């Protein structure tokens, strides 16, 4: 059984990649609301930063195990 999940909201820490016009158009076309956190409130960004760090560390470990060159 498949379950379709729709993204309703994206929260970012005022990252520039989410402020680009193509990204804004994509969000608008899909009905996604983009929210930003306060710049001076690192506690709001903590969960996202930890998840991002985990993804980076996992990708580095997988790249190392696969013996891929550093350019990847």
Question: Can you tell me about this structure?
Answer:
With 72 residues, this protein is mainly alpha-helical. The chain has one domain (10-65). Helix content is 47%, strand content 11%. The protein contains 2 helices and 2 strands. The chain has a two-stranded parallel sheet. The N and C termini lie far apart (35 Å).
Any chance you could write out the topology, listing elements then pairs?
Elements: E1 9-12, H1 21-30, E2 33-36, H2 42-65
Parallel strand pairs: 1-2
Major β-sheet, in short?
2 strands, parallel
Write down the overall mean pLDDT.
82
Structural class: mainly alpha
Distance between the termini: 35 Å
Total helices: the number is 2
The poorly predicted ranges are: none
Rg, Cα atoms, Å: 16 Å
Compact overview of the structure:
This protein is mostly helical and 72 residues long. The protein has helices spanning 21-30, 42-65; strands at 9-12, 33-36. Strands 1-2 form a two-stranded parallel ribbon.
Give structural attributes.
two-stranded parallel ribbon; 2 strands; 72 residues; 2 helices; mainly alpha; extended
């Amino acid at each position: 059984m498949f379950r379709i999940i729709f993204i309703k909201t994206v929260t970012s820490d005022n990252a520039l990649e989410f402020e680009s016009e193509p990204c804004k158009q994509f969000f608008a076309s899909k009905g996604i609301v983009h929210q930003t956190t306060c710049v001076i409130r690192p506690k709001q960004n903590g969960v996202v930063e930890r998840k991002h760090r985990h993804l980076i560390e996992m990708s580095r470990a997988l790249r190392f195990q696969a013996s891929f060159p550093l350019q990847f």
